[in-house]
Structure formats: structure tokens, C-alpha cells
Amino acid sequence: MELRDLSDHVEYRAGRGIEEVARELGRDPEEFVKLSSNENPHGPSPKAEAAIRDAASEVHRYPKAVHSDLTDALASKWGVTGEQVWVANGGDGALDYVARAMLDPGDRVLVPTPGFTYYGMSARFHHGDVAEYDIRVAPGTDDSEDFALTADTVLDAYDGERVVYLTSPHNPTGDRFTLDAVERVGDETDDDTLVVVDEAYGEFTDAPSAVSLLDERDDVAVLRTFSKAYGLAGIRLGYAVTPSAWADAYARVQTPFAASAIACRAGLAALEDDEHVDQTVETVAWSRQYVHDELDARTYESHANFVLVEVGDATAVAEAAKRAGVLLRDCSSFGLPEHVRVTCGTREETKRAVEVLTEVLDEVVAE
């Protein structure tokens, strides 16, 4: 028996954890700082931690009521109906639900490059095809920014795709689309094209959410997650906010009990922990500015919880930083072999990362 043809499928490669790097180098995990996976520098919401412990004795029951409670809380937060909120196992789970609802075999989606690999992976899992729009400015044009998250960038590549993905703030560049750009993409694409705005890093920007567009549009959906600002990456909890016309679709495309009881309890508690979110956002803002101000390398304006840095040889720099105890993301996997991505850590972690990266860049240049 053979598998179906998976030759067009690519592997999602997450940043390596401290434990596995420590084992590889034969060192104590305490020696390392991990700033490679855009995780929350302050850990999970304390209220969510307490909720997780309290929920442990109830995990023998299916999460029907608490799932509804979380859906209602999110609907209230965004001013939408409960039917518009599609809770899922992480943001990637929400992407899968959208793909199930939208794609017939052979339908195409339009995704950014560089960008989040799972957009295309999800489409292919559901027998769709993938086209790309390149956000890198073409050689010979105005490259003062190097990346262009504009409506023109998307529309120039658009050719009737069923779903168009916009990441705002964008990973790994940190840039963002304006709401005007999102609306223009919606206006100038076909009536049966859905614009999905991935706002996984939305809490770190002062721009308004694209959820505000759903009052008047039925061609936009918005993706959100509890992994970043709420510090619940290990729980795997995300959701989509969808057009009001999709009222009965979620029940038809979701897996049974789309998020665990523990995840739902943690999410509900995290939504009430404004202090933790505010602390996280403030730390990220400070960390971004510190990296921009103190690092003697080209950095890019960021509206997320990381900063993209141009370093020359990303693999060599990331490896040297790893040996010095700081884990950064080599962006070669994004098609950016001259850049690393530095997650915003605590003040202490950020200062250490800048110190190490400065030393490493001096060494690489000297070589």
C-alpha cells in the first residue's frame, strides 16, 4: 500500500527548544536563552495557570459547556455573534477549518513569500493548489524598505484564487497591512474570494483589527491566537472570526470538540488577565526599541514581538549565537539567508541577546 503523492508538501520546521540544543552541545539548559520562537517572555497568564490546575480533575468530561463559554466570551470581546467564532486547536487548526469550508479539490490559494508555511500546507492537505505573492521588493526598484506589504503587491499576483492570505503583523518581517489595503484587496478580488487576515501578533500593534471590517463585509475572515500575548503556545488554542453568513458552517467542518477542556479554561482565564497582557505588550515594545537602538546592524520596523535583523550569513551567525547561549531564528528557512529573527525577551534576555549578537557579528566580519 502506498501513500498519496506528498511530493508537493513541505515540512513545517519550528524553532528548536532549549532542551534539545543543550543535549546536542552537552551543556546545561540553564545556560541558554531561547529567542527563536516568538514565545511570551513572561510565560503564561498566571490566571490561566491557575485555571489549568483547577481543570485537571475534570478532564474525563468532554468540553462542551466550556467550549461554548469561550466562544461567547470571544464573541463579546469582538462584538460579533457566537456563530462567527471558530475555536480551534491553535491558529493552524483554524486555518484548516477555513480550508475545509472554502476549498474544492484543485482550488488555489494565494500566500505570501516569505511567510508562514502552514498556509500552503493546509491548502494542500485539503487538495488545493498554492500560488505565491512575493513581498520582497524587486531588484532595481526602490528598496528602501526591502519588503512591501501593500495591496498592489497582492493584487499584482492575484489570478482568481479562492483564498488570499494576509499576515498582519507579518512573520518574519514585522511589517503590517493597513486596513485600507485589506479592504482594497477585498474590493478588487472576485466575489467568491475570501481574504484571510492572520493577526496572530495583533496584540503587539496599535493598528485596529480587521475584525472591524466584518460588520459590512462577507469576504474577510480574521485569525487570532492565544499563543503569543497570552503565553499559551503549549495549550494550542486559536480561533477565526468569520462572516456572519457562515452561521451553520462551523458545526460542519470542525473536529469533535475542537479545543480541549484545559485549553478552553485557560483561554477564558487569560481573557480576564489584562495585567499580564499589558505587561507583555509593554515589555515587547521596550525590547523592540532596544534592539533597534543598540544593535549595530540593520533592523526593520516591527509591529510584532520580534525584530528582523540583517546579518549577512544568517546560518553562521545563528550557530555562533547558539554556542554563546542565545537561540535566534535563522531565516534561511523563510528564504532570507541574510537575516535572523530575534524574539523580544525580558529586559535581561534582550540585553544579553544584543550583547551576544554584537560580538558574533564582529567575529563573522573579522573572518
Automatic annotation (TrEMBL):
Pathway listed: Amino-acid biosynthesis; L-histidine biosynthesis; L-histidine from 5-phospho-alpha-D-ribose 1-diphosphate: step 7/9
Q: Which catalytic reaction applies to this protein?
A: L-histidinol phosphate + 2-oxoglutarate = 3-(imidazol-4-yl)-2-oxopropyl phosphate + L-glutamate
Aminotransferase class I/classII large domain residues are 31-357
Q: One GO biological process from the UniProt record?
A: L-histidine biosynthetic process
Which enzyme type, at the first EC level? transferase
Pfam families assigned to the protein according to its UniProt record, in alphabetical order: Aminotran_1_2
Q: Does the keyword Protein biosynthesis apply?
A: no
EC number per UniProt: 2.6.1.9
**Signal peptide positions on this chain:** none
According to the UniProt entry, which residues carry N6-(pyridoxal phosphate)lysine? K228
Q: Which GO terms describe its molecular function?
A: histidinol-phosphate transaminase activity; pyridoxal phosphate binding
Keyword vocabulary terms for this entry? Amino-acid biosynthesis, Aminotransferase, Histidine biosynthesis, Pyridoxal phosphate, Transferase
| InterPro entries in the cross-refs | Aminotrans_II_pyridoxalP_BS, Aminotransferase_I/II_large, HisP_aminotrans, PyrdxlP-dep_Trfase, PyrdxlP-dep_Trfase_major, PyrdxlP-dep_Trfase_small
Please list the cofactors this protein needs: pyridoxal 5'-phosphate
PANTHER family recorded? HISTIDINOL-PHOSPHATE AMINOTRANSFERASE, HISTIDINOL-PHOSPHATE AMINOTRANSFERASE-RELATED
Q: Which family does it belong to?
A: Belongs to the class-II pyridoxal-phosphate-dependent aminotransferase family. Histidinol-phosphate aminotransferase subfamily.
Q: What is this protein called?
A: Histidinol-phosphate aminotransferase
Species whose genome carries this gene: Halobacterium bonnevillei
